[in-house]
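Researcher: Sequence of histidine kinase follows. Predict its structure.
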Amino acid sequence: MIEDDSNSCSILLIDDEPFAQQIIEHGLKTCVKHVLRYESSPARAADLARELNVTVVLVDLRMPDLDGFEVTRRLRANPDTEHIPVIMLSSEDDPEVKAQAFAAGANDYMVKWPDPRELVARVQYHSDACVARRERDAAFASLRVSQQQLAASESALHQAQKMEAIGQLTGGVAHDFNNVLQIIGGNLQLLKLVGGLNEAGRARVEMALAGVERGAKLSSHLLAFARRQPLQAVVLNPGHLLRDMDDMMRRVLGPNARIVTDIDPSLWSTVADPNQLNNVLLNLAINARDAMGGNGTLLIRASNAGGDAPGPGAMLPPGVSPGEYVVIEVADTGKGMPPDVLQRAFEPFFTTKPVGQGTGLGLSMAYGFVKQSGGEIVLSSEVGRGTSVRIFLPRSETEAAQPEAHVDVPLFGGLETILVVEDEEDVRSSTCAILSALGYQVLEACDAAGAIALVESGRQIDLVFTDVIMPGPVSSLQLGEAVREHLPNAQILYTSGYAEGVLAHEGKVSASVHLLQKPYHPDALSARIRHLLRPGRNAGAAANAQCAANSAGATAA
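Model: Prediction complete. Tokens:
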């Protein structure tokens, strides 16, 4: 068993006569726990007291180089030794000398050679006082650290609660906003389809549709910040995406800015929504351009971090959970941010740009996307030295597939029968009119219960186009189950402006679930419908339907 030496006396004796060590050691023989160190040079007293962490110093008064008064003064002048008890030893039993000793800072005064019982009692008393003081100081230091940590935790909790409250508010607003945009956009597109507009009228419609598109992007950014944007996540290699964005980045920054790209050739894969990641990086580039005033250098770096990743940048910063990550850094040489701006940089609508030059949603959208993707985002900035944004996305063990080439699909319809399920009458009316104009046979229902009645009636239905969030006792998931049971060859296409917790599991939509986000363009609606109704697809509909059922069931659970 190892004895606890925390309360032992650690004694330093300063005396120019070596025999003094033997006398003091003999006197302390009844002091069970003690360690005595002897030093003949008084000049080394302060250094030894600090190095040996002594709890009592015994110092002789009369020595040839430095006397006991000066040794005591030096101990008191050193912050590391100022509180160590000093007992002065002297053959002079003179009150004036004793007064000088106490004035110099001594804690006690003993006439040579003291009785062993008195020596042990005084040494033990002063040593215990020194140990108690050190324990008290350590407790206060620990308390200060704990208070600082508590204050930091409370600040972080307050910030997280504030961001969550803002997120809930923006998510709800975005849902209603998307329905309004769908009504406006759908009717404007219907005007274009039915024709009869003169050039001036067509120009006005196009202008209004451009406004709808801007509103849709704003709503998308709000949902991304609120982490309620359903993500179509796939395994991807960010290096491919960054290379594909190179030309766009150069156009965004302008001819006077310099772009430096550093992509690790052994970059890992990650799981993310490529379109949303593209938007995040583009917004970061725009912020960098504005911060640099069109000049300066933009660094885009992609590397691996955590785990066994090599290189100096592989260490994870504080606040990032242990693991393996793909890191994308966008750093500029702009004007940077002061601490008060840096603290609020992720808040939606917070911007230091002049009115009309920024929405304040770029960084908040990036924050929401990264958090929803299971990653971390680290922002660092210094006034006059630029800003760095690092995105940490969890590594995927699956290798990324080569991206498919995008093919534009023209607007066209068909002769199939489509059931439109939408509780918003104006949205349902415009959507049904657009599908009818494209040649489809259109059935409509205002809720899931009415849709199930049509499904169970035996009517021929090739595709069900249904909103996700609807009032009433029957949910869109239950409608999907009824379609799979009664119409196994029919396809299901969901639409929503806010599908949190229904189709999305942890913010991500399964690949077997087909979702068209509001507000949708007729071109996108037409392309998705033709994709789902293409010849040969129904041969595998049952298997796909079962996958969708399993995914929906897991999400609902």
